[in-house]
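MODEL INPUT / OUTPUT PAIR
PAIR INDEX: 1
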Amino acid sequence: MFNTANPTPNLTLALHRQQQLLEALAHALVATPNVEPQTAAQLAELTALTTTISQTLHESCARLNTVSDAFTAFLALLEQADECAVAPSGLWALAQPLQQQLEAACGPVRQMV
C-alpha cells in the first residue's frame, strides 16, 4: 500500500479494501474453533465502525461537492461585480449559508478524528 517514492499511503478505495479485509477476517474467525467471544465482538464493532466512517465520509463528500458548486457560482458572481453594484451585505448574505453548509459537511468528519 505504500509507495517508496511517495511515503503517503494510496488512499484510493482504502475504505473499500478495509471492508474486504474485515470480511475475510470474519470468515476466518467463523472457521476457527474456540474463538473467544470478546474477539468476535471486537470484530463486529470494528466492522460497524468502518461502515459508519464510510457512510459519514460519503455524505460529507456529497455536501462538499454541493458547497463547491455554490462557491463556483459565487466566484462567477464576483467576477461580474464590476458590471453591477453588489452591496457587501448582499455578498455576505450569499456567502454565509455556504459557510454554514461547509461547516455541516466538515463537522461529522472532524468528530471522527
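PAIR INDEX: 2
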Amino acid sequence: MHELPDSEQTPLAAQRVRRDTASRTLAASRIADLAALDPAAAILMIESLRSSLDDTLQLLGEHIDPC
C-alpha cells in the first residue's frame, strides 16, 4: 500500500481516506447489476456495504463526539 509522507498522516487525512473508500464502495454497488450477481458475489457486496456503513458511522461519531 502507498505510504503517506509524515506531513499527510494526520487524523483528517485518514478520515478522508475512510470517506473516499466508503464512497467508492457505494458507487460500485450502484453500478452493479444485482440481478446478474451470483449468490457469493451478492454476499460479498452486502458485507462490503455493511463494513462501509459501520466505518462511516464511526467517522461521524468522531466528529459529533470527539474524544
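PAIR 2 NOTE: The helical segments are 11-31, 39-64.
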